[in-house]
Amino acid sequence: MNKILVEVSIGELLDKISILEIKKEKIKDSEKLNFINDEHVILKEQLDQNVKSDDKLNRLFQSLKEINAKLWVIEDDKRLCEKDKDFTEKFIKLSRDVHFLNDDRAKIKLEINNHTGSKIKEIKEYTSY
Fold first, then answer.
1. Separation CA 112–CA 71 (nearest Å)
2. CB of 12 within 8 A of CB of 109?
């Protein structure tokens, strides 16, 4: 089995774990779930071995997971709009919500990185709105 080892920020690791946990809840295909579960175990082991958990980190992780769960629903709803060729206010609102939630997500990941002293930090810069 080939795999690539790379360093990532702690915020990015927790983001990925939160998405995998959402996939475990949402995806029903057993073959896909096997891959998801395998990846989740690997990443969770790395987290447990390398990051000391505390109440603040747990709260930040839950916030990240809540945002990613909202993004999951929004993306599903946007795909339905696309399928139905419905590009009304509903589609516009969903698209805008993605931007706002991704900004919140980036802030939480940065807060996780600062809280844990992560050596790697994702730096974002967007046009102001």
1. 19
2. yes
